[in-house]
Fold:
Amino acid sequence: MATEQRFQASYLHALVRRLFISAGAPRHIAEVIAEILINANLAGHDSHGVLHVSMYLSAIDSGRMDPAAEPSIVKETDQTLILESNNGSGLFMAKTAMERAIEKAKKAEVCRVSFVRGHHIGRLGEYAEMAARAGCIGILLSGRGGGENGGDILPYGGSESALGTNPMAVGVPTGDDAPFVLDFATSVIAGGKILVAKSQGVDLPEGCIVDKDGNPSVNPEDFLNGGHLLAFGLHKGYALSLLTCLLGGLSRDFDIETGSMRGVFMQVMDVEVFTPLEAYQQGVRAFLDGIKATPPAPGFEAVMVPGDYEHNMRVERLNKGIEVPEDIYGRIQEWADKLGVSISEDLVESADIERYRSP
Structure:
């Protein structure tokens, strides 16, 4: 198994921020990129954390991403919004979109948002949780598929990949530090988890991938060498994957000639429109706690609900630090050398320490 190093969240945040500032991002954009990546690591989803630093910096270096670009409005009504990323950071794009969606939902009861040409937006649960913490219910779908190089997932019954991992997420307020956050790819595992397994030198769970010839495998290298991801739940996960593309396509990012369709769709609903927020949150928490009180089955320590794992991991990693595989940190060090960025603890500011203070 590969070796790992442990770092405080405040240090990783400061380092990532400095790297993106040095790559041309304004501080406020670099701050958002760092925050969302580190939050993913804290939530226990390393597949969406600092693993992506080198990928994003490579996109900037090659001109595929403009680190200073701000989203612009394509079309807007009281309850809808279509945004253009202008080839900027997908993380900054998605957070900006959710902030605007929450603001609009608070005024007009509900808001639906779609993106045009956004880069990778990271962990969808981040934005669902933003909605929940604002007293709203947030629903997100991110779809990509069809056309040449449509994705990494086999359509049900197919032998060639045609769909992306196409995740979806829902956030529901609970009135406490552990909102209900459902967040999953429509593949059995997210693509980033394959890279995590490779960096750790471990096998994948069974039933996640097949090799290039369609044979079941647990070796990450078999996927990286032309293999395919599988949709969860057979035809059911496949159907949900198609739905993410159909709603994502409201972004207008589809091509009739190639049959490709992609985009991100968000919907935010203000709970207060339906019922008093405080009472609803109490009802949600009582319901979830009742489910969790179910006696666990053999082999399980406890019954959990979506959001528990992320909350528990955040508490643990704020206290103990975040483990980063040596090869991932090594790639970050290579970019630091290339950009002339110091990797010393001197990067950390008092605001960084305060942001990640243990509960």
The mean pLDDT is 94. The chain has twelve helices and 13 strands. Residues 63 and 87 are 9 Å apart (CA to CA). The first strand starts at residue 4 and ends at 7.
